[in-house]
Design a protein that fits this description.
Blueprint lengths: L1 H35 L2 E8 L6 H18 L5 E2 L2 E9 L4 H13 L5 E3 L4 H14 L2 E4 L16 E3 L4 H12 L5 E7 L2 H16 L3 E8 L7 H10 L3 E4 L8 H6 L8 E6 L2 H4 L9 E4 L9 H13 L9 H18 L5 H8 L3 E4 L2 E5 L6 E2 L2 E7 L8 E8 L12
Parallel strand pairs: 1-3, 1-4, 4-5, 5-6, 7-8, 7-9, 9-10, 10-11
Antiparallel strand pairs: 2-3, 11-15, 12-13, 13-14, 15-16
Helix pairs in contact: 2-10, 2-11, 3-4, 5-6, 11-12
């Protein structure tokens, strides 16, 4: 009996010891696995259909190429695989919220990126704060994103309306000049005009008319008639989307009426209908021949190889910049996706992009970046007016005011 009791006690000891080993060793193995393996998920919101479809697809191409570039083709960082999940916002804020919620709750993404529309982006911003996830804004430009609607989880690689405004005003504004503005009637256009007006008036120009149109409109005749009646020296146009006003501006012969046109050079499809504006001076966010750096050279070469000789367009480098920013932050964090740790890394972080060095300003997380003063010129063999560099506008020159106080 004593022998049986002793054997029973030994058996109990072995079972207890084994259980204790399993309960302490297993978490260590799992934790180690999380450090050296696993997946980082990035959810990208973009207008993959609708009026801003071309912008969304440019961002998508750029983001894919950016992850590849920043990871040297491995699609991994700090030993973790990167998975990208794209969702179409359809350029509808309510859909953007639905898709963002799906990414955060069902897909459990570690980052949000987007979107093509400022309206979509503004609708999603509160979710980044609610779920405590970093959101990289690209390519939406409304000032309020890093201004009145700012929260600490938001970082923006796209330029904002004030940066555009400084560049646009520098091209045409001076004492005695009368300027009319024309823009779509939503946050992108409203913020763009407000920022341009401030910059132009500081340079001595007078804004004689602010004209806004339905962003879904296709007939702008009545709007442009008001511009003609105001008799400005310049019409400064803030526009995005396929339903642009360029054909009707040409049809109404504004330039023959003494009204010079100025704007930001748009994407290539829109440039193709700007033949009447050859000679116009304005600014550019990006055209593939404007930057002179190794990252842009790689982007142009790879884009041509993969997309039947097509060059990257207006928002392709922005998608790439957003991807590079995420990977560089993850390299610094050694793959840790804790948002507070990432905020500490991203604030003030500089990183190389197709547009040169960008820096996330610590105060409002807006990326300071280069823009370009350009003139539209006709070039042999190119079926649209080409933005030709007058000079680079440095990040210091285009630094916008801090508006998130």
């Amino acid at each position: 009996m004593k022998r049986k009791s002793w054997l029973f006690l030994v058996l109990i000891f072995v079972l207890v010891f084994s259980s204790a080993c399993n309960s302490t060793d297993s978490p260590d193995v799992e934790a180690e696995g999380e450090e050296t393996g696993g997946t980082i998920k990035i959810g990208v919101l973009a207008s993959l259909t609708g009026a801003l479809e071309s912008y969304g697809k440019q961002t998508q191409r750029g983001f894919d190429l950016g992850i590849e570039y920043a990871t040297d083709g491995t699609m991994e960082v700090a030993g973790k695989k990167i998975e990208i999940i794209y969702e179409d916002t359809e350029t509808k804020p309510e859909v953007a919220v639905q898709k963002a919620t799906k990414l955060l709750e069902e897909d459990e993404v570690d980052f949000i990126v987007g979107s093509s529309s400022s309206g979509d982006t503004l609708a999603v911003l509160p979710l980044a704060e609610e779920y405590e996830k970093i959101m990289i804004v690209e390519p939406a430009v409304a000032d309020s994103i890093t201004g009145a609607e700012f929260n600490p989880y938001i970082f923006r690689t796209s330029r904002n309306s004030s940066q555009d405004a400084v560049a646009g005003a520098a091209a045409i504004a001076k004492p005695g000049v009368k300027i009319a503005t024309f823009a779509p009637d939503y946050s992108f256009g409203l913020d763009g005009v407000a920022a341009f007006k401030k910059a132009a008036e500081e340079l001595g120009a007078e804004i004689v008319l602010e004209e806004y149109a339905d962003p879904a409109a296709t007939d702008f005749t009545s709007n442009l008639q008001k511009v003609i009646e105001a008799k400005p020296d310049y019409l400064f146009v803030v526009w995005a989307g396929a339903n642009s006003p360029w054909n009707q501006i040409a049809d109404l012969k504004l330039q023959e009426k003494g009204i010079k046109i100025s704007t930001g050079a748009p994407d290539i499809p829109a440039l193709s209908i700007m033949e009447p504006l050859v000679g116009m001076e304005g600014f550019s966010v990006y055209y593939h021949t404007l930057p002179n750096n190794d990252v842009n050279d790689w982007l142009v070469d790879e884009h041509k190889k993969r997309f039947n000789g097509e060059v990257p367009d207006l928002f392709t480098p922005g998608g790439m910049s957003a991807a590079i920013a995420i990977v560089e932050a993850l390299k610094e964090s050694e793959g840790n996706v804790d948002s507070q740790k990432l905020i500490d890394i991203l604030e003030g972080m500089s990183f190389e992009t197709p547009k040169g060095k960008m820096t996330f300003r610590e105060e409002d997380h807006q990326a300071l970046q280069t823009l370009y003063s350009i003139k539209l010129e006709k070039q042999d063999g190119v079926p649209y007016p080409v933005p030709v560099l007058i000079r680079e506008l440095s990040p210091e020159e285009t630094e916008p005011p801090i508006q998130n106080k």
